[in-house]
């Protein structure tokens, strides 16, 4: 069993992992993630409280969100690999997410980056396989970039990660990445400031984060377009409907939540393509 420390940013990796497990149980026709179930069963973590919260209608919507965003980001990775089959597939703030393996075409290279204590747990539960590396870095320490072999292209993705970053830090990160990884793309999930505030009330508080105003949020993709001349394009799609539209598959309440998230919280998947 592997212990996860409470009240840390690292603990936040439990939410999407557990969400994917719950989603598999409740919506097996939409998502099936036996790996998330296996990993949860190997963690020394008290899931009882989170379990209770996630069984509510709102909690189940959260589970749908995390499963859906993994689907969306995996879609983007697979799409990039069609034109760059040997590319680097880089999971920024990977937690215990195994998207690389879900997208592996047999020739690409996978890199999973997270804080050292997370990587220690990951090395036990999801040890790197062929063409895969688990890298222990703070993403704000740009030395991680030197570890990536981008000679055949690079697709970066971050799932549930930049909510913990200051806007300035994300901007600097993308500017540096655009210079270093020409022709690459970075894809991530985002919401607007209203969404960020809602999040602090729930899980960011548990991670000891309270000053949400400085944190990264996006109302409109044009905010990111203005960041750098090294961006070729910035695209945005609805998180819940933009890749696989599950609107007609869910309950009336969840339909309302989808509309709310699209219109008022601006839950989007954003893709930045570097020149
Ligand atoms: C909500 S979890 C998401 C985990 C994973 N992407 C998923 O979807 O299951 C956020 C992750 O980002 C990592 N993280 C946050 N800030 C980071 C930083 N500055 N450098 C590296 N990892 C970071 C945390 O350790 C945590 O594993």
TrEMBL record:
SUPFAM superfamilies according to UniProt: S-adenosyl-L-methionine-dependent methyltransferases
- Database matches in InterPro entries: Ppm1/Ppm2/Tcmp (IPR007213), SAM-dependent_MTases_sf (IPR029063), TcmP-like (IPR016874)
Kindly state which keywords UniProt assigns to this record, in alphabetical order.
Answer: Methyltransferase, Transferase
Q: Name one Pfam family in it.
A: LCM
Write out the GO biological process terms. methylation
Q: Name one GO molecular function term.
A: methyltransferase activity
Is Methyltransferase given among the entry's keywords? yes
Q: Supply the name of the protein.
A: O-Methyltransferase involved in polyketide biosynthesis
Source species: Butyrivibrio fibrisolvens DSM 3071
